[in-house]
Amino acid sequence: MEEVFIPALGMAMEEAYLEKWLKHPGDAVNAGDVIALIETDKAQVEVACETAGTVGKHRFEVGASVPVGETITVVLAPGESE
Amino acid sequence: MVGEVMGTREEMLAMLRMMMMIRNFEETADKLTLRGKVSGGMHNSSGQEAVAVGVMSALAPDDVIATTHRSHHHTLAKGFSAREVMAELMTKATGVSKGRGASMHLGDVARGHFGGNGIVGAGMGIGMGAALGIKLAGDKKVAVGFVGDGGMNTGRTWEAVNMAAIWKLPLIVVVDNNQYAVETFIERVTAGGDLPKRASGFGLPASTIDGQNVLEVKDAVAKARDFALAGNGPTFLNAVTYRYYGHNVGEKGQYRTLEEIEDWRTNRDPIDQLAARLFADGLLDQATFDEMTASVEAEIKDAVEFAENSPNPDPADVMLNVDSGKLRG
Asked: How far apart (Å, rounded) are the C-alpha atoms in residues B27 and A60?
């Protein structure tokens, strides 16, 4: 199971605004697929996954401010569950 | 890889293991940084291991280094433990700099490491000062000043080279040349195109070496060290290397093609090249290699646990190391 999380992208970044979910629970994804768009103080950033699998539950709604390092969803390998 | 002097099997395996340890350390620290567990900026040196390990393999323990903002590889290769470096990245009290410095300020003067810093080209200036100190004290050792390719176009670098040359200081200038000054490709900003040519204008031996070949780096530094110890002064080495990740962790890196990065990773990786040579020469077998891989993984896992479980610095000690304390009541 891969945890997809809000990356720390700058020295002073503490949280990000969750702008849009591009993949939804149950969607099949490949490594490198963009899962969500987030906004930091400086830029819009694509959050991608590193492995192929099935997207799990969205742990935050669009519009949420999510702390750096927080997991926003997971990518499940075949046979895995949350 | 031709022309280098091979060391003993133990020396070769130690160099390979150190490069593997640095790679694992950096890739682990990169992930921890993205998770928000590392304070301040973090510059990953993956891909540049052979420069650090080649240099340190040619130095004596008492020799001095001064480094740059990208210094984990230099610091680990100098003999600092993964535990104390990882703890410093997390600004813990058990870190190299007692949690005051983070990634860019690793160092310990007592152990011949005059520190990293965030100033472009400053490692060279500090290294030159260390070399002057060595000469004045009459010590039989050398100083290495590390500088990046970006530092090649800043004035203080050449002031230091000039002073080291006229005073014949025991300084080895090592350009840890990963070819990109943040996003800027070195060839686009280097008038004349040839860094050693600039240095040889100051009258010192200067050459470009393959920074992906740990044995070539070690050889060149050993010669420069002998030259300096004989009283002949500084040498300039332009070690051409490549960083696999962005300038800093989290950078998107859209100024390089994926093909370029993949080519360096696949065809010029310093660890792969040394391992292949040792396999071919019968100095390394699969069981030994697997054992080294497992022991490196265990060492870095232990370093992360140590760092995470270490205390933060005590706020009561905030003035510690700020000054001598003599002027305060």
From this structure: 28
